[in-house]
Amino acid sequence: MGYKCCWFNPGRNIKECPNIEEGEEYLYSSPRKRLVEKCVYCQSFQEDIAQLPEESPLKKIISILSDEYKEQKGHLQSLSTFLTSKSMEIKFLHELSLVLQTSMELDEVLSVAMTAITSGKGFGMNRAFLLMTDRDRKYLVGHLGVGPRNYEEAWRIWDEVDRSNFSLTELSREFYKTKISSERAKFQDILEKLTISRDLKEHIFNRSLNDRRPILVENASQNPEIDPGLVSTLGVEQFLVMPLISRNRSIGILLADNFVTNKPITPRDMQSLQTFAFPVAFAIERASLYERLNDEVEKQAMANKKLKEQQELIVRMENMAVVGRITSSIAHSIRNPLAAIGGYARSLMKSGDLIDKKEYLEQILKQAKQLDEVLEEVLSYSDSVHPVMDSWDLNHLAASVAADMEERSIEHKLKFVLKLEADLPQTRLDYKQIAYCLKTVISHVTINQPEAGSIAIETCSSGERIWLCVIDKVSSLSEEMKNALMTPFMETATLGQGVGLALCKVILERHGSSFDIEDIPGGGTRYCIILQNLKEGM
Is 289 left (phi over 0), alpha (psi -120 to 50) or beta? Predict the structure, then answer.
């Protein structure tokens, strides 16, 4: 009986063992390690054991120990693989948790979550869909889908991922920057079909969310509890429904499948995703609340801004009301003696007794008339009220005002040039007040015009605004003069005192419109009445 193994054949040189490879020379000097690492699996060793006499107890003992050792080593290797896998999973979840905990933007959170589910460096699912409950908790709404739509796209995406060699964090960051909008649009038709009412208690989505447990659906087309429309929409027989719950609040549903590879989803996959679902739900809830908080802060800021504007307007109105009461009192006190002066002057002119003084009487009447117009302006300032709105053609208003002021234009040897936009939309305005403002602006511009000059009146529209402008191509104004024109009774060396343009500003503010004085490139000034294009019923 010839033995092949060095354990049973003392004449066999250990260094001739075919199982010991280069780099394993340490086994020559350690019989114990050589036995457990090489000999137990050596064919020659097994054959030598088989040659031992049947009555030898050593043969049976060695066989039992050998088999038991192999079995235990197999268990250890399996456990080592499992621990390695779990260690990688823990590291992966830790990495994701750090990103989820620090991100406050909803789309960024979703990018991390959906990339982790569908990436081969994450959970490796082919597709994932997110459904979120609406604010009223009445619907589960399809919010985002990630993955390929067909086989060709799948291979292209996987090839790009392999060549990019990005980490999971880098993949999610790239997805957030460049792909989230296109992915949402790509799956819009499926997301709309996935949207369901929360009242459908027997729907698998609601069952998973209400029971707070994941559901792994298999043989979907044969399952009577699965809506055939859902099976048709997804086009797969197996998919995983994972509820997202945070602090006893239902956030939504994660839906995952292997649409391309048809790789089975295992209970272990489901368990891993379930571990991942909690931090995702918490991060989504926090990001959603942060998003809503920002919206409310912006609304509050806008409300505060409007409130401040209203308060400032009220203060201005109160100040103007005080000025108005004073000016009204003074104006009424002056009007009576002024009327008497004008009446006596007209009477003297008619009598003919002072025919040689006719020129002086005409000047008295002219100055009295001018002073009466100033008083009318002052009374208008003090008595201006909220506008009476109606629909009007602004072109017609501009042409009518120009015709009414034709006598004054002839007196100053001026010509009105109308540049009215065709098909100008009608707008709601107080005809009397806007006509007064236009006349006031034209009167102001007329003072500075040379003889045989011209004044342009223009209308135009853009979006929700309509402009009615008077163009002064002669005079340019400093900022001091512009401010003076807008302030009642403000006086400068060249402008004197008055309320005309300041009154226009007040009227237009109450009208919901505005008044602007702007420079014209190359010289001159444009006076613009800017109206809001208010529709009927607004």
Answer: alpha
Q: What is the DSSP string of 203-218?
A: SHHHHHHHHT--EEE-
* Rounded-to-integer distance, Cα 527 and Cα 274, Å: 68
The predicted pLDDT at position 248 comes to 80
CA-CA distance, 110 to 180, in Å (whole number)?
A: 9
Query: 243 has which bridge partners?
Result: 253
Per-residue pLDDT tens over the stretch 178-230:
888 888 889 999 999 999 999 999 999 999 999 999 999 999 999 998 999 99
- CATH code of 277's domain: 3.30.450.40
The parent domain of residue 36 ranges over: 14-86
Ranges of beta strands (E only) in 234-323 are 239-246, 249-257
Q: Is 255 within 8 Å of 116 (Cβ atoms)?
A: no
DSSP state at residue 535: P
Are residues 4 and 16 in contact, defined by beta-carbon separation less than 8 angstroms?
Answer: no
In a domain, 18, yes or no: yes
Per-residue pLDDT of 122-162, as tens digits, reads 778 899 999 999 888 899 999 999 988 888 888 787 777 66
Q: What is the pTM of this model?
A: 0.48
Instruction: Kindly list the distances between the CA atom of residue 434 and the CA atoms of 42, 397, 517, in Å, as whole numbers in the listed order.
Output: 108, 8, 16
Low-confidence ranges of the chain (pLDDT < 50): 489-498, 537-538
Using alpha carbons, list the distances in angstroms from residue 491 to 126, 185, 496: 78, 63, 5
391 and 477 inside one domain: yes
Query: What is residue 496's predicted lDDT score, i.e. its pLDDT?
Result: 40
pLDDT of residue 537: 47
Please report whether residue 119 resides in a domain. yes
Q: Residues 306, 310, 311, 315: is their CA dihedral positive or negative?
A: positive
> What tokens does 456 get?
């342009």
Averaged pLDDT of the chain: 79
**Residue 494: predicted pLDDT:** 42
- Angstrom CA distances, 22 to 25, 191, 306, stand at 7, 59, 84
As for how many domains the chain has, the answer is 3
Residue of 278, 258, 252 whose CA lies nearest to 128: 258
Side by side, which strands form the sheet with 139-146? 196-197, 139-146, 127-133, 249-257, 239-246, 215-217
Same domain, 49 and 111: no
Residues 6 or more apart from 430 whose CB is under 8 A from it?
387, 388, 389, 390, 511
